[in-house]
Structure formats: C-alpha cells, structure tokens
Amino acid sequence: MRKISIIFFIFLLFNNITITASADQPRILRLGFYTTKDLNLSPDALHTIQNTSPTEYVSVVLFDSNEIVQEFIRLVPKSEKYDLPPIQIGYEIIIIGDGEITIS
User: Fold this and answer.
1) Please, which contacts does 67-73 make with residues 24 or more away whose CB atoms are closer than 8 Å?
2) 82 by DSSP, 3-state: which?
3) What is the pLDDT, as a whole number, of residue 24?
4) What is the DSSP track for 10-62?
5) Per-residue model confidence (pLDDT) at position 28
6) Which of 14, 29, 76, 101 is 20 to 30 A removed from 38 (C-alpha atoms)?
7) DSSP state of 100
8) pLDDT tens readout for residues 72-97
9) Distance of alpha carbon 17 from alpha carbon 52, whole angstroms
10) pLDDT tens per residue across span 30-82
11) What is the reported pTM?
12) How many CA atoms lie within 13 A of 102 on its CB side?
C-alpha cells in the first residue's frame, strides 16, 4: 500500500509541472504609441515586424530616446517579416493605420 501511495504522489507531482516556452511570444499591436518598456522588448535583440491585416496598410515609425526617427516603414497587407534595427531602452514605436502588426 505504501508503494502505491508513493507512486501516486509522484504521478501527481509530474502531472502538475507545466512547461513554459522560453521564446518571446509575438505581440499584436494596433494603432497607437508604444515604448520599449510597454512592449517588454529585449534591448539589442533582433526583432521582426509584420503586417497581419488582410486589407489595411500600416505605417510604423521607430524613434530613439532623443526623438530622432530611426526607421519609417510602410507595410502592405499580409506583408513578409521585416527586420527592425536593434531596439534600445527608451525607443518609441508609433503605429499609424487601421491594420494590426506583429512584433516578434
């Protein structure tokens, strides 16, 4: 009886363990103003951006901490992934348009 109880508790222990993916989850964004702090983006990491909207164009403006434009992108509907320059702490992203984009 004791062995069965121990095996049962070990089974319950392994059954309750959840595995979380370590990769960053893509973020879906719409019209608005975002900071790197809001999006929890890793500094100096390579990020990609994609317009997932089927019909709407989206413009994306990336500003550095001195409010200088680092990147301006106009994404067509259902665009391919586009590599962003390395994003530093204090950068800001403005999304213009009715579509939605994915940053990963």
Assistant:
1) 67/92, 73/49
2) strand
3) 58
4) HHHHHHS------SPPPEEE-SEEEEHHHHTPPTT---EEEE--SS--EEEEE
5) 86
6) 76
7) -
8) 999 999 999 998 888 888 889 999 98
9) 34
10) 888 988 888 888 887 888 899 999 999 999 999 988 988 999 999 999 999 99
11) 0.69
12) 14
Instruction: Decide: 62 and 91 in contact? Cβ < 8 Å.
Output: yes
**Identity of the residue numbered 71:** E
End-to-end CA distance of the chain: 52
Alpha-carbon distance values, 50 to 18, 29, 34, 78 (Å): 30, 10, 16, 8
CB atoms within 10 A of CB 4: 8
Instruction: Give the tokens for residue 57.
Output: 């164009």
